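Sample 3 of the quickstart, ligand nicotinamide-adenine-dinucleotide:
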Amino acid sequence: MILVTGGAGFIGSHTCVELLDAGYEIAIIDNFCNSRPEVLDKIRTISGKDFKFYEADLLERDKVEQIFEENEIEAVIHFAGLKAVGESVQIPLQYYHNNITSTLILCETMAKYGCKKLVFSSSATVYGDPASVPIREDFPLHTTNPYGSTKLMIEQILRDLYVSDNEWSIALLRYFNPIGAHESGLIGENPNGIPNNLVPYVAQVAVGKLECLSVFGDDYNTHDGTGVRDFIHVVDLSRGHVKAVEKVKSTSGAHAYNLGTGTGYSVLDIVKAYEKACGRKINYKIAPRRPGDIAMCYADPEKSKKELGWQAEYDIEKMCKDSWNFTIKNS
Ligand code: NAD
Ligand code: UD1
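Result:
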């Protein structure tokens, strides 16, 4: 059985569907601090399969132990964490406590029960402002906000853990920009309040909930002056986790992998692709740069292709189409 922490969340829910489709039994732990219980039934509907669910906080050690006591957990995918960059600057202690302490409790419990296979949700944010693109896993690492620092610190903790005990097998998955939704339109990204990220914001403009997108800067050194990112379909990303589980089950070590497409699209490229997907005009205006943003960020996904046997399949049209389908079905 695979334990999925944060399995009710955006990426976790899609990954649970892929794991169930691949024939794995799963258990989920989530405290719904950034998700909703309805997601669980949607995972059941899409996959046609059932699973165990524990409503609990990873900070509650006895609850985490109970899961390992009651189930034969062979590997863990660890999504649970707080993820809003701006908020992490406002409430850093909560970010460090939630993300780091919960990982320590999880790993201590895993070690106690002899489960030493772990897939961890890291982020391309650990590359900071890269000297060049595409970004390889061996590029220098540094962070600019508490959220990013939690990811980098956890990566270091997990590498140290492997050094201390070579039976551990750990995949550090560095996600680029996950967007889109399951093509059923049942699960997707549904942020509370006004979205911070580009595609959820564009979706709300398209559906008429928000009036106008602010494009943060048009004077970057990119093909049209707006920021360039490596957008990846959340279903592709989720399939990368199934490959990573297979990898950690069959090897040992602590290895980082980029999960991105290798292609960069600008903010205005996204606006155009979304307009095509929804058949509506997206109002936008050029606004000042957002502090902390970088010009370009996209992956070199070669290592994942070679070592995980994984590569992204879906293009930007499919990402926008599935995002739109989810948006209209859930507004
Ligand atoms: P999400 O917020 O949708 O999912 C995280 C889930 O974890 C939520 O369901 C939340 O309720 C749960 N959770 C948080 N803290 C918990 C705790 N202490 N105990 C139990 N459950 C807890 O986020 P997501 O977009 O699915 O991201 C999943 C992981 O991937 C996160 O670690 C995030 O930092 C990382 N990541 C996300 C992105 C992105 O763009 N979405 C990019 C890079 C990395
Ligand atoms: C952000 C996070 C990053 C996280 C990633 C996950 C910040 C600073 N970084 O990255 O840690 O891993 O999300 O998806 O928050 N944009 C606009 N208008 C908007 C929103 C965004 O023009 O209303 C632009 C941004 O300036 C950027 C691009 O769109 O150029 C993508 O932004 P966003 O979706 O927030 O992702 P990142 O900043 O890449």
